[in-house]
Design brief:
The protein has 4 helices and 5 strands. It is α+β, with helices and mostly antiparallel strands and about 120 residues long.
Length: about 120
């Protein structure tokens, strides 16, 4: 079974640093668990989910008590994934501005990769 590997840059790293220690630990543990069990199994238990109507855009779903953290990610190649950014979810529906931000970061990353900048 192929296992996913996640990578991220400053946008997601800064989000992690901004979180309280327990929330940060829960989110990092979630990433480790997803890498261990794979995306199919992680999806079955609700740890990851595709973003409706978006190609190659997904979310990591972390929760500690009433604190809900999300991280958007996309597939770079084979089993390599890139986490665009994270946010604390405060409403039932995922804010469209967060989806748009993830799309901008994904598109910039893929363009830079295609142009040999990465």
């Amino acid at each position: 079974m192929n296992k996913p590997e996640f990578d991220w840059d400053d946008e997601f790293g800064n989000f992690l640093i901004s979180l309280p220690k327990k929330d940060r630990a829960v989110l990092l543990d979630l990433i480790d668990r997803v890498e261990t069990v794979g995306l199919v199994s992680a999806g079955k238990v609700g740890w990851v989910k595709s973003i409706t109507n978006e190609k190659n855009l997904y979310e990591l779903r972390s929760k500690l008590g009433s604190n809900i953290q999300r991280g958007f990610y996309f597939n770079v190649e084979k089993e390599t994934y890139f986490i665009t950014h994270g946010f604390t979810k405060k409403t039932q529906k995922t804010p469209s501005r967060e989806i748009e931000k993830a799309k901008r970061i994904r598109n910039r990353y893929l363009e830079d990769k295609q142009n040999g900048k990465i």
